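Protein modeling request. Please complete all fields; requests missing the sequence field cannot be processed.
Requester role: graduate student
Desired output: 3D structure, token encoding
Chains: 1
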Amino acid sequence: MLEKLSEALKKATDKISKAVFVDKAVIDEVSKELQRGLIAADVNVFLVKEITQKLKDKANDEKIKGIEKKEQLIKLLYDTILEIIGKEKKELQLKDNKSEQTRILLLGLYGAGKTTTAGKLGLYYSKRGKKVALLGLDVHRPAASDQLEQIAKQNKLAVFIDKTEKDPLKIYKKFKQELDQYDLLIIDTAGRHSLDEELVKEIKNINKTLKPDYKVLVIQADIGQAAKTQAAEFQKALEVNGVIITRMDSTAKAGGALTACHETKAPVFFIGTGEKSHELETFNPNAFISRILGMGDLEGLLEKVQSAMDKDSQKKLKGKLEKGELDLRDFQEQIKSMSSMGSMDKLLDMIPGFSGLKGKMPENMLGVQEEKMKHWQHAINSMTEEEIKNPEIIEKQTTRLGRIAKGSGTTTSDIRQLIKQYKLLKEFTKGGVSEADLSSGGFSQKQMMKLAKKFGKKMKL
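Delivered output (461 residues):
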């Protein structure tokens, strides 16, 4: 995401690091790199000029005791980007009281991705123990109800739709008694090509009747600087109190959407980073900048791990990890969860120190590894329960290797590599895992850093 800005920031920090000393010429060069990156990311030109001038002024005049000039300039660069996209992480606060329901009303124009986002949000909160219902009030777009129904089915969410009714308020009243039984209600509404009078009237009526806790604007990243006008218009019509930005995986021009939301004082709650249901992340400005600077985002990675596993799976894994007991079936479940988290390319970007490795890897290496993981799953499905519980016997008896390879359409080499990776993971968890390490529902930052340090050279991609 924001590839051009990421490249520009990396170039700027490299120039600072390589400079013998920081003078006006270096500061000017860094400012120009930042300008090029921000403009390429579709940030408003006047805003770019304003913030880069502030950077130059501070870099030339500001003195921070105990910090070298190079470090000071890098910090100023970091703070400058934070100023554009917002300094604090804002979160949707769901009601804890079981007798109270939280309601999220999704708004946006055609093509913004409201319906898909409704499913992603529902899955996100259901993984966190909430009883979620989706309500389809888009009565204008053909097949909108079918799409929401399909998404809900894929994610095992309750959905309430009426494919024949053309009055959204009648649909709500029809299901009101059933809807009241849920902790969280996510409401999908109709869009238009523009925010016309008819749409404003409809969403105002829905807002008045349903009284949502959050009115969230769904806006696509590739809309660019038009996002500012759209955000302002929706805010004026309905006092929007949050934003979700979609398509952050497919565009380098998300700067317009990010800065527009900040300027209109509507916080970004989530960003959509792919088409899969799990590819929705809470928006954390600090972590976001760390990632585009190539510094990783462990908090975001841990969130992905948690989103990929339901409560029961987390509890089961927790028990096994605490005892240091893992078998190949557990390993298979982890492979499935990892696959649902997104591509390995994206995951590497989130691990500190790993994003820079991608450029040094042979072409399509990560794709080959993803394919290999699919082969491993097929191999495990071809094993007996005895082999799954005690895979060491497979290595001792080559006839088992041949049988499994033939039955799964893999090679004996694939199976040997699978067992090797399983042994590494088992060795890592042999001593057990503490309660603190599992507090986030999976490996903690401490565990993941330990894993990277201990097995970084052993793990074979």
